[in-house]
Write a structure and sequence with these properties.
Blueprint (H helix, E strand, L loop, with lengths): L1 H6 L31 H14 L3 E8 L2 E7 L9 E2 L3 H15 L9 H4 L16 H5 L10 H7 L9 H6 L15 H15 L3 H13 L3 E4 L15 E3 L1 H12 L3 E2 L2 E2 L3 H7 L4 E2 L7 E2 L4 E5 L2 E8 L3 E6 L4 E7 L9 H8 L9 E7 L6 E2 L4 E7 L6 E2 L18 E4 L2 E2 L1 E5 L3 E5 L7 E9 L2 E9 L5 E2 L1 E4 L2 E4 L1 E3 L2 E3 L1 E2 L4 E7 L18 E2 L6 E5 L2 E2 L1 E9 L2 E7 L7 E9 L2 E2 L3 E5 L1
Parallel strand pairs: 15-23, 29-38
Antiparallel strand pairs: 1-2, 1-13, 3-5, 4-5, 6-7, 8-9, 10-11, 11-12, 12-13, 14-16, 16-21, 17-20, 18-19, 18-22, 20-21, 22-23, 24-30, 25-26, 27-28, 27-30, 30-35, 31-34, 32-33, 32-36, 34-35, 36-37, 36-38
Amino acid sequence: MRRLCLVLGVWLGTVLAAEPPWPTYGWLTSTPEEQGMDSARLEQADAWIRDNSPNRYSLLVVRHGRLVYERYYNGAGPYTPYHIASISKSFLSALTGLAIDQGVIGLEDRWFDTFPEYLEVADPRTASLRLRHMLTMAAGLDWRDSDIWQVWAPAPQLYPDWIHYVLTRQVHAVPGERFFYNTGNTHLLSAFLTRRTGRSTLDFARTHLLGPLGIAIGDWWRDVSPQHYYTGGWGMHIAPRDLAKFGYLYLRDGAWEDRQLVPSGWVRASTSPQIRHNRGSDDFYGYLWWMDNLHGFFIPSARGMGMQRIWYCRELDLVVVTTGDYWGSSPDTVRIVNDYVIPSLYRGPPEVRAVVNAAGGQAEIAPDSFGTLYGANLAPAGVEWGPVILDGKTLPSELGGVKVLVGGRNAWLSYAGPGQVNFLVPEGLPAGAAELEVSHPGGSAKTTVVVAPVSPALFGYSLEGRPRAIATGGGEIVQAAVPNDYLELYANGLGGTAAPHPSGEVLTRAFPHAGPLSVEVYFGAARADVQGVNLTYAGLWQVNVRVPEDTPPGDVAVTIRIAGSVSPPAWLRIG
């Protein structure tokens, strides 16, 4: 998937300030407009909460390290700690990563190796239970979160050994086989951390996480065993502004002030797909973190009962927090981010300046090939398709809030940024003029494009101020070649000739060229031996050639020709 972004000439860096402010001792505040947001749209979020979510306590929005919007409800305040329910699980994930980094535990450690006394009461099928399984909700044990209140909370003395209770639930799968949400499973993880670190989960958290962040914990519930293990998956009481600090820590890849507080690799792994929790294209779970795909932005979230959430988005440099009464009912608060916060970043309609073949820059685009749209105010930040489309098979029709229609049909996007959008042209478009419309939450714009049956071009990159051909031997990009070298060229605009191939599908194998058209490659005036033409990623073609023996040394123009059309030259140095 990454190769596609490379050949399109897109290198996406995280849009974060070089020296961000650190809110350890308090948040810097700013207006939404000073941080590129529309305060009117945020006020609409406040109105939606007042009309639809009576159990809300708070809404906080942080952008570029500044607190730009803050509202409280039902008597709550910025420093009042409330029960955050299962948001506690994401804190537990961070603590697990810290213990792994310290060498105290390992991701593949088996739980029963540390608690062998429970083997005799547990089902033998759970003997392989590992930390990884608990972090991904794949312990294999049946669970209902109502058990917390019906069995433990009202009369804990009826079941003093909560670990025993969790392990004696019905087994519905072997550990690691499938996702099944289980809060009891995270209590096992908290007990594991306690025994292996030799400190309570709270003490470990205060020393290594909460203290450095400047987070004060109001309370953290414990079980009634002699060890008084802290509940791993719920029970933490933290104020809204402190929850925003935790989201900001993850936004900054675990860095805080002058130290790497949580390993960046653990932050990325925790908020990357580790297991599928449903059958949708973006229904994935990390290590006690959820995945959201909102307007084509990849947004990890920590979730708690009562529709409490912490969201953060690296591309947008954004953290959003909402808390509420976990007993109250509320519509899904994802609407706050999807309908109001992200749209507040689009300050006006897009502007289209040019639409060209993504590789060659020529004005004609071809069906089932990549085009590039240049303009202004296209998206608030650059985002590529790889981390967003979690199933790894389908390019999105919306990315970075941007949608593109060509001839009234959805295009499929691989990159969207403030000044550039790369898209896969719909297949089956007739040749001739077609209307292109680009839209996002701030408005839309239209222009006319020319669709040609083919528009061949080779992808290139800049080297020493001159365009060079992208040519790989053995999968590596090369800057120079010699006669008889075997090369792989990446081409665009060869037409939708691999059938059946639904536009937007990202192929997991090379798809042989299926059309009657012949593809020719020339190194200067010398015609190369084309040994294969394969579709690799959606509309991206791989052309296998050998450099002709009679190619002279020096810089040579490489062109690809199909159906009488010749690509602009890309350049390769022949040694």
